[in-house]
Amino acid sequence: MSIKKLAVFIFLLASFPLLCFGHGGSDNGGMECGILSQGGYAIHLDVYVYGRMGQFKTYCQNIPNTGKMTMVFDLITPDLKSIPLDVKVIDLATGKSILEVPPKLYSTGVASIDVNFEKTGKYMTNITLVKGDGSNPMVFKFPINVGLSSFLTSPTAIIVMVLGGVVVGLGIFVFLSRKKKVTPSPIASSKA
After folding, report:
1. Which residues pair with 90 in a beta bridge?
2. What is the mean pLDDT of each run of 10 residues along the chain (192 residues)?
3. Half-sphere exposure of 142 (CA within 13 A, CB side)
4. Which of 5, 145, 146, 154 is positioned for an S-S bond with 117, CB 3.0–4.6 A?
5. Taking the model in full, what pTM does it have?
6. Cβ count within 10 A of residue 68
7. CA pair distance 76, 81, nearest whole angstrom
């Protein structure tokens, strides 16, 4: 393997963690990020945070900012389309509900619910399956942290890591390309 190829490989390897900041820069991503399953049922959560000009980012658990957003629950198990769901979002600091949606059917298999997280903090979204007489409810609990993102997922940290990766990669490349190749001298090879 040539030195230049090795330098590129090391740079790409060092940059790989930076590529993992998809899914809105959160520590989650993909369908597995917000799936809860119990009792033979499964529900997936994505939270859509809207930005300028209709752009949005999706998050599952760690949402960087407060404000209006949309929670989208994918009812993965087909049977859930015929069971009424009750949705509550509770502020864990106060124990008070900031959103309550009475039981209803989501026959399309998708529940799209607007919510306004006015302050930073920890919240719990409870999805209750309302079956039969309601004596034994099944509750899916999705924790949501608003405005409590770590430094590593902040835009500043991402910029610092990207620039750091570029500088390190360029440094390795320049160092390896300037390194003089040692060639045997004609005198040393004639002695053999």
Report:
1. 97, 124
2. 60 48 42 78 92 80 90 94 95 96 95 94 94 80 84 64 81 76 60 54
3. 29
4. 146
5. 0.62
6. 11
7. 9
